[in-house]
Amino acid sequence: MYDRTSDKRMMEYLKDLSVIIPLWNEKESLPELVDWITRVMDREGLSHEIIMVDDGSTDGSWEEIQALSKQYPSIKGISFRRNYGKSAALFCGFKEACGRVVATMDADLQDSPEELPQMYKMVVEDGYDVVSGWKQHRQDNKLTKNLPSKLYNATARWITGIKLHDMNCGLKAYAHDVVKNIEVYGEMHRYIPYLAKNAGFGKITEKPVHHQKRKYGKSKFGLERFVNGFLDLLSLWFLSTFGKKPMHFFGFTGILMFLVGFVIAIWLIIAKLVHQAQGMAYRAVTDQPLFYLALCAVLIGVMLFLAGFICEMISRTSSDRNSYNIKEQF
Fold first, then answer.
1. Over 50: is that where the pLDDT of 214 sits?
2. How far apart are CA 64 and CA 236, in angstroms?
3. pLDDT tens digit sequence for 13-43
4. Host H or E run for residue 51
5. CA-wise closest residue to 214 among 322, 109, 314, 88
6. Do 150 and 144 form a contact (C-beta atoms < 8 A)?
7. Superfamily of the domain at 7-241
């Protein structure tokens, strides 16, 4: 494992900390948030940049960011022409980040900048790749946010194998190399720790953080995010497990279904012949619903097997089929 504190690596980092803030219609909270972050960074003596990504706001948030940038030179701004989603905002923020540690937080003042220095130290001094915030005492509605969140996080822990209590917390800190070696797309911002794990960054931990009540505006996420999040998690699990070897899934499933259907069909035929030879009462094979279910299983098995071949052909022509994250090279 390479040493992140080596002089050679340190030359690449222009700042100690990059703070990425994706936002959509959060104009009222921005001045207070930027001032808070700046005071904390100055107090701790950390050089920093604040990358604010306006995800197509319509309330004047971009104009507010432009005005704040004149007062705070640390601000960098990115504005989308329309709303693309949080993953797109984080992707662009990660691309621009030049800090030794890259932190993300929401713009609604529910995440406290006071947590950033400690999270920074956990990455730099303790060597963690990802430090995820854990909102132990949430200030949201218990029925619509807390209970679904607990169920969602329990499912995420089971599927990903990452023991985090709050996978979806917006307050996180990453080593520089992590954000430069993962691709956040769709709505995968919920699973960046899992993306990091799949990219080979396995030192993942969590830190209990203070969660505050929303001061301005209202939440931009509804209950549908839990359904969408579950579907995204299944997609990510499937792609990470079988993305480069689809035949292992489709081929195995296809062969299994083919064999089950074939064995059942042969068994029905043999049973009919045995009963017929012994002069016993029997039903015609084609009169038995189980026979048609067996034929259906055989056909589905063949189609799945062929789908595996097609997926393998597509995978072999992919431009990133031999894309690997290299830890060290000399």
1. yes
2. 36
3. 789 999 999 999 999 999 999 999 999 999 9
4. strand 48-54
5. 109
6. no
7. Spore Coat Polysaccharide Biosynthesis Protein SpsA; Chain A (3.90.550.10)
Indicate the pTM of the whole model. 0.72
Distance CA 311, CA 307 (A): 6
Beta-strand relationship, 99-104 and 172-175: antiparallel
**Of 32, 16, 6, the residue nearest 216 (C-alpha):** 32
Tokens linked to 322 = 């031999």
The CA R_g of the chain, rounded to the nearest whole Å, is 26
Selection from 82, 109, 91, 89 nearest residue 27 by Cα: 109
Number of H helices, E strands in the chain: 11, 7
Residues 6+ away with beta carbon under 8 Å from 262: 294, 298
Task: Write out pLDDT tens, residues 136-191.
Answer: 776 655 555 666 677 777 887 888 888 888 888 889 999 999 999 988 887 788 88
Rounded CA-CA distance 41/87 in Å is: 26
- List strand residue ranges (DSSP E) for 107-162, in order: 130-134
| Mean pLDDT computed over 72-101 | 93
